[in-house]
Amino acid sequence: MTREDIRYGEYIAILREELIPALGCTEPISVALAAANARDALGVIPEKLDVQVSNNIVKNVKSVVVPNTGGMKGIEAAAAIGAVAGEADRVLEVISRVDDAGREKMRRFMAEKEIKVSPCEGDELFCIIVTAYDVTGNKATCEIHGTHTNITRLIRNDVVLIQREQTQECGETANRELLSVEGILDFAETCDVADVRPILERQVAYNSAISEEGLNNPYGANIGKMLLEKGDVRNRAKGRAASGSDARMSGCVLPVIINSGSGNQGITTSLPVVEYARELKVSEETMYRALTLANLLTIHLRYGIGTLSAYCGAVSAGCAAGAAISWLHGGNYDTIAHTLVNSLAIVSGIICDGAKPSCAAKIAFAVEAGLFGWEMYENGQQFYGGDGIVEKGVENTIRNVARLGHDGMRQTDNEIVRIMTQS
């Protein structure tokens, strides 16, 4: 692919927009971001917070530790830490610099002030609306819709500070409709690595650091550590990704580089590929090409599903990582396409029941499916069009999976939330 190809610049822009740092699970961080923006618009620490969220936000905040809160979970904790100590200009690292004083302010706020949590109206998948009130009746509202940083409305009393259509995504301008498996492979094999190196260097550094943290300390169910004890590259690839999730889901204060709005997806996309690249002793340039392939494939697989769904995002990332690993072993377009179809056919039924320690185990099995899908093809085996959701042609199967995740699993999503919130 030449630089003159319109896709060349768009693919680089997609990577820049998607592979950004975030501290902690991105849904509670988005709640904290909304609260910090509402407080800034109000001008003072609020006396009361009114937090409205969609079902998917409830699901992904309920069971995960919010970083820098002293081990607290839930929407109230996320909103409180954002309102009293968040730095809105740091976006998805909004609570990365909270200190002991900030945590003490949060505890007092939660003990003394009212934080009301209620559902957003309608059936929107991603909705966060935080309204902050001061003692005199002034109020400020921040609304985030669609994606984690997409502030569509910020208002103080009747003064509109930010207003944009909900269909517009803040900071996202690259055209993801241009993604295809064929185009992604072409770009990964021919791009000037200098154009993607800074983006990927940061991903490797950040995600490797949190993986090491997860291996060296007790977090969650210690899935990564269990897998690493087995020693071989297959289990190291799964374990490196799982250990990063172990730490992240349990409140680790190290940031990660996300993919498709998710830190777990960013970890799953990158660390197995890095592990295999090191095992195979390929050049740094080859590793970055493989990471380019994995990241863009994850974005392509996830794009039609949407930011949040009852469809586990680790599936897309694990399958993409498996495809990139097949490329590291000399695979071509046919290898990658069949790896994706085979692996998607195996694990597309994994549900997302929120962010929590078991995400690490789901990540391990998603990576295993990616590797198994590749091995099937290497052994002359494959799933064929008409086998369930599989349709002839990798892009057709990807579209079917997107339809399943975006449309077919909406009722599943609602039922998951009802199960999770029943008393």
Descriptive overview:
This protein is an alpha+beta fold and 423 residues long. The chain folds into two domains: 25-163, 60s Ribosomal Protein L30, Chain: A (2-Layer Sandwich); 179-421, 2-methylcitrate dehydratase PrpD (Orthogonal Bundle). Helices cover 54% and strands 10% of the residues. The protein has 16 helices and eight strands. It has a six-stranded mixed beta sheet. Strand 6 (151-156) and strand 7 (159-163) form a beta hairpin. The longest helix has 20 residues, at 197-216. It is globular, with a radius of gyration of 21 Å.
> Would you tell me which CATH topology of the largest domain applies?
2-methylcitrate dehydratase PrpD
| Percent in helix | 40-55%
Which strand order does the major sheet show? Answer: 3-2-4-5-6-7
What is the name of the CATH class of the largest domain? Mainly Alpha
Strand content: 5-15%
Extended strand count: 8
Shape: globular
SSE order, as H and E?
HEHEHHHEEEEEHHHHEHHHHHHH
Summed up, the helix count is: 16
Rg from Cα: 21 Å
CATH architecture of the largest domain: Orthogonal Bundle
Structural class: alpha+beta
- How far is the first residue's CA from the last residue's CA? 56 Å
List low-pLDDT spans. none
Mean pLDDT: 95
The tally of domains stands at: 2
How would a crystallographer describe the biggest sheet?
Answer: 6 strands, mixed
